[in-house]
Every structure is written in structure tokens, then in C-alpha cells.
Design brief:
InterPro entries: Sec10-like, Sec10_HB. By secondary structure, this protein is mainly alpha-helical. The chain is built from 13 helices and 6 strands. The strands form 2 sheets. A 4-stranded antiparallel β-sheet has the order 3-4-5-6.
């Protein structure tokens, strides 16, 4: 590892890989985790284990040693530690497998330390890109009183920050995927080659399994922090798109009597297109419970972000229909998350959107089957264009006293 790091520091960023006499290659300090490098680490470890086994075999072939009297028995003790013959006819009591197990455990622990350090450093480098993208986003945050020239420059910077965020998101997902593959290689190596050699020592197998979990905990911590940053990156861009693309007339039009527009709003279309594009790498990189947890958290954040976003608008009946179309579009997309709790939240959003469509006198019966969403529903009702004129505040206070 010291040799790899020394070579990594000497190589220029443009070359990308480092040639080694043994055929291995590794990425420069600014590049991705390489499964090939971890595979090479395992090969080196296999060579070390083979040497341990070879020395043990050489000891087992020895026939001579030091004969001593032990009470009434003649005992032969080999000059190499662990080999003991406890009878005059040469019957053996072997201690060498235990010694081999101890040495194998030490050599395997070395592999765990090096792989853990390598993949953790790779994940931290990928996290650095997410942090840099977040810093870019901060630069274009402006007040409302700015000139058109400044606003145009800020918009350009926002696009650049969005591109950097998307790129860093994909890079981190690649790093997580390669980290998972690397850990799987080590686990498979342990199961196929190491575990059987540890059996002669009580508790050695369990201890090595625990060491494996401990060694990978630093990488897990880096992965967890990075995935949280990925969610922040996605939500920052979603909020930017909603702010830039959503128009007040999307949900309230002076021409409320004309045929409603059944298409999703442009803001919704842009957000769903962005999520579809950027999350493609997450669907590929994450598996099992990791994937479920990440997408559930992201779905919950998206739900909360949309609720807060819609609080900025006023809705008339045709706008309510348009909102339901947007909610349907968002809901169809999040179904790909396979997160039942998220699906339920978006289904309830569709029900709540009805508060903009029904007549004031029908609001009282709208949530009879779903009383749990009355609080959020009241927030929506306050966004109706006729909230004051229809005196909905007093009407709802008398109907839902517990939630007023």
C-alpha cells in the first residue's frame, strides 16, 4: 500500500493509471475506486496465505526432533513451534493447524485494514465532489432586487452548479457500487479460502467476521454521509427547477371557465425528467435495503418539498385540476421507488388536491375516510381563491374544532 501511494502521488492526473510489475493498476488520487485494485490486494493475500500453508506442510514432513523423558513417557519435541509428538512410537498430537490459523487470521486482518482504507479514501474523494458542487450552488443565491444582467449571470451559474451536482451524484453512485463489489470480493474470499483455516482455533472464525464488519464500518460511514449529500444535491436542483419553471398562472387562471389544461405543468415535467435522468445511476448502484432506504428518504423529502412549494400559490378550480395532474405525474414516477409509505403519501396528496375543486359546502365530507390528513388539508384550503370570500375559516372551525 505504501508503494501504491508513493506511485499515486508521482503520477500526473492526466495519465489516469499506474503500471505495476505484477500487472496491477490503480487509479490516481483523484480517480474512482477500482475493483481491479481490490482484486489484486486479495491476490497478494492469497500468496501470503499460501506461504503460511507451505511452511506448515514443511513442518509436518519432519521426522526428527528433540527426544526428552516426560515422566514414564518419551516425548519428541520439534524445534519448530507447535509440532509435538507425545509417544515413543511416533504418534503425533498436532498443534500446527492452530498456529496456522493464528497466522492466517493476522494476514487476513491486514487485508481488511488495507481494503477498508482504500475504499474509504475513494468514497471520501467522491464526497469531495459533492461538497464542491454544493459550494457552487451557494454562489448563485441572490436577493430579489437585482438587475437583469446580474440575474442572467446567476442563472448561468445555477445551470453550471446543477451540472456539477448531477455529475458528482453519478460519480458517488459509481463509487458506492464499486465499494459494494469490493466488499463482496473480500467476503467471498473469506468464505472460500479463509474460514476453513480458522476452524482449529475456537472463536477465530467469529472474531474474523466481527473484524470484517469493524473494518468496513469506516467505509459504511463515508457511504452514508455521501448518500445524504446526494439527497441534498437532488432536492436542491428540484427546488431550483420548481422556482424557475412554476408560474402563478399554472394554478390560477383568470379564464377559469375555459376547458382545463390536462397536461402536467412545465415545472412538473422538468422535475420528473431530471429525477428520471439523475436517479438512473442510483437504481443501478444501490441494492437491497440500501436502495430501499435511500429511495424512501428521497421520496419523503420530495413529498415535503412539494408541499412547501405549493404553499406559495393560490388555486382556483381549474388550477386544482392542473395540480391533480401534476400530483399524478409525480406519483407515477415515485412508484418506481417501490416504497409503499411514499406511494401512500402521494395518494393522499391527490385526495387533498380535491379541496380546490369541490364547492365550499362539500369540504366537510371530503376527508371523512381520511381524518389523519385534515391538518395538511387545512393548509391547502387556505390557498383557495375564495378562502376569505366564502368565509371558510369559520366554516372549518365549526366543522373540525379539534384541528382548528
Amino acid at each position: 500500500m505504501a508503494e501504491l501511494r508513493a506511485e499515486s502521488q508521482q503520477i500526473s492526473e492526466s495519465t489516469g493509471t499506474i503500471g505495476r510489475s505484477k500487472g496491477a493498476s490503480t487509479a490516481s488520487s483523484h480517480q474512482q475506486i477500482s475493483v481491479t485494485v481490490v482484486t489484486e490486494f486479495v491476490r497478494w493475500n492469497e500468496e501470503a496465505i499460501a506461504r503460511c500453508s507451505l511452511f506448515s506442510t514443511q513442518v509436518s514432513d519432519l521426522k526428527g526432533g528433540l527426544w526428552v523423558m516426560d515422566g514414564k513417557r518419551l516425548k519428541m519435541i520439534c524445534v519448530l513451534q507447535g509440532f509435538v509428538v507425545c509417544s515413543s512410537d511416533g504418534a503425533c498430537s498436532w498443534r500446527m493447524p492452530a498456529t496456522l490459523a493464528t497466522n492466517v487470521k493476522a494476514v487476513f486482518t491486514c487485508l481488511l485494514d488495507q481494503v477498508s482504507q482504500y475504499i474509504t479514501e475513494g468514497l471520501e474523494r467522491a464526497r469531495d465532489s459533492l461538497t464542491e458542487a454544493a459550494a457552487l450552488r451557494e454562489r448563485y443565491v441572490l436577493g430579489t432586487s437585482v438587475s437583469r444582467r446580474v440575474a442572467a449571470a446567476a442563472a448561468s451559474a445555477a445551470e453550471a452548479a446543477a451540472a456539477a451536482g448531477e455529475s458528482s451524484f453519478r460519480s458517488f453512485m459509481v463509487a458506492v457500487q464499486r465499494c459494494g463489489s469490493s466488499v463482496a470480493i473480500v467476503q467471498q474470499y473469506f468464505a472460500n479460502s479463509i474460514s476453513r483455516l480458522l476452524l482449529p482455533v475456537d472463536g477465530a472464525h467469529a472474531a474474523s467476521c466481527e473484524e470484517m464488519a469493524t473494518a468496513m464500518s469506516s467505509a459504511e460511514g463515508a457511504a452514508y454521509k455521501g448518500l445524504q449529500q446526494c439527497i441534498e444535491t437532488v432536492m436542491a436542483e428540484v427546488e431550483r427547477l420548481l422556482s424557475a419553471e412554476q408560474k402563478s398562472t399554472d394554478y390560477w387562471s383568470p379564464d377559469d371557465g375555459i376547458a382545463p389544461d390536462h397536461r402536467p405543468t412545465n415545472a412538473c415535467t422538468r422535475v420528473v425528467a431530471y429525477l428520471s435522468r439523475v436517479l438512473e445511476s442510483a437504481f443501478t448502484a444501490l441494492e437491497g435495503l440500501n436502495k430501499q432506504a435511500f429511495l424512501t428518504e428521497l421520496g419523503n423529502r420530495l413529498h415535503k418539498g412539494l408541499l412547501n412549494h405549493w404553499q406559495k400559490f393560490t388555486f382556483n378550480p381549474s388550477g386544482g385540476l392542473r395540480l391533480k395532474r401534476d400530483i399524478t405525474e409525480y406519483g407515477e414516477f415515485v412508484r418506481s421507488f417501490n416504497a409503499p409509505s411514499v406511494d401512500e403519501k402521494f395518494e393522499l396528496l391527490g385526495i387533498m388536491a380535491n379541496v380546490f375543486i369541490v364547492a365550499p359546502e362539500s369540504l366537510s365530507t371530503l376527508f371523512e375516510g381520511t381524518p389523519s390528513i385534515r391538518k395538511d388539508a387545512q393548509r391547502f384550503i387556505q390557498l383557495r381563491e375564495d378562502y376569505k370570500s366564502a368565509k371558510l375559516a369559520s366554516r372549518l372551525s365549526s366543522l373540525w374544532p379539534s384541528s382548528s
